[in-house]
């Protein structure tokens, strides 16, 4: 009897992707086999996203689409059901689940008889091999996400993530290092550190903020790991110590994802953010002086309740002044059950104005970005292999920033035609958010 096939669609953030990778591995250990075709799958699982309205709409679109595409059992899991309530999921599904564990239990029950049969006549050896796998990495050949904690204990007034993912739960140092070592042995060179709140790692376990440095030191000692990229760095006073640490550790990529969300003190106070304008400038000036080549990605929210045009102009000035390398601008999404929802009910910024502000801020940033891109022409960067003829330089994170494409179709053969993990590439041309270049020997 053929193995039951599963199709898993991952939506949302890198943390969800790591969860989907873990779920896929557990499903394979259960005796199912992965499929890339929902039409030809016995079970279709959607690991959903649900933290803001637009994300929920995306989830609803894909669930309906897969329902029409597949006869298989449809399981809707993850953040969407957790955000709206498992009993309130008004979508065409067979089963709904919050966690990986619940999804596994449901799947095992659906295919109980079949799994028992396949297990009986399964290729025991093949099964043992699967049992040995510690982690599936679907990001790219030399890069992987490494999740160090789940949830968040900060209470930003606009954010529903603590309601969805719970308070901060740090993974143990031993578990993180085991996974990092396993990935390094599998050939991974770049680890992208993810969580909701990276510099709070281990604090929920009674540890100190500085524990993150010990963890990063140990990850830096792992043979084969050359790049450690930091995401979700909350801009508070501690991040100044982090900048000092990064300046001392050459394995930490000169790239930081630090969501400032806003720059006006009144708005930041109403967001219950620990950052204030003065501190934000201090952090960024620290970065600019200590690590001038550091690439900075940030996220900003426009249209937060009470955002006057004068407060919005401060955001424009902030972006103009610090010329961020990458910028994500979100329209404020009133999230029921969050404190900002009440503020929104009393004092909304008109939708039209919110959209105009997003447009204006992105227009300003795009001008800055174009200038930064063209300044890279003629420069040589160490780049990591992503896929055929596609690489990323240190200032480009996976999946969200541009790439460096090999222009002249040069062959860069390592042994046996396999691409080397890193190459030096001279930038020749700009192509939107991507760069075109050619291999050089340095
Ligand atoms: S730190 Fe991030 S995840 Fe945590 S509450 Fe604030 S916005 Fe949400």
Describe this structure in words.
- By secondary structure, the protein is α/β, with parallel strands linked by helices.
- The chain folds into 3 domains: 128 residues, Rossmann fold (3-Layer(aba) Sandwich), CATH 3.40.50; 232 residues, tm_1862 like domain (pyruvate-formate lyase- activating enzyme, Alpha-Beta Horseshoe); 60 residues, Nucleic acid-binding proteins (OB fold (Dihydrolipoamide Acetyltransferase, E2P), Beta Barrel), CATH 2.40.50.
- It is built from 15 helices and 18 strands.
- A 6-stranded parallel sheet has the order 6-9-10-11-12-13. Strands 2-1-3-4-5 form a 5-stranded parallel sheet, sandwiched between helices. A 5-stranded mixed barrel has the order 14-15-16-18-17.
- Helix 10 packs parallel to helix 12 and helix 13 runs parallel beside helix 15.
- It is globular, with a radius of gyration of 23 Å.
- The protein starts with a strand and ends with a strand.
- The model has no long low-confidence stretch (mean pLDDT 94).
Structure summarized in a few sentences:
By secondary structure, the chain is α/β, with parallel strands linked by helices. It has 15 helices and 18 strands.
Indicate the topology:
Layout: E1 5-10, H1 14-30, E2 33-34, E3 43-48, H2 53-69, E4 73-78, H3 79-84, E5 95-97, H4 100-110, H5 112-120, H6 124-132, E6 143-147, E7 149-150, H7 161-165, E8 169-170, H8 173-185, E9 190-194, H9 211-220, E10 227-230, H10 238-248, E11 252-257, H11 265-270, H12 277-290, E12 295-302, H13 309-322, E13 326-331, H14 339-346, H15 351-375, E14 380-387, E15 390-393, E16 404-406, E17 422-431, E18 434-439
Helix pairs in contact: 1-4, 10-12, 13-15
The structure holds iron/sulfur cluster (SF4).
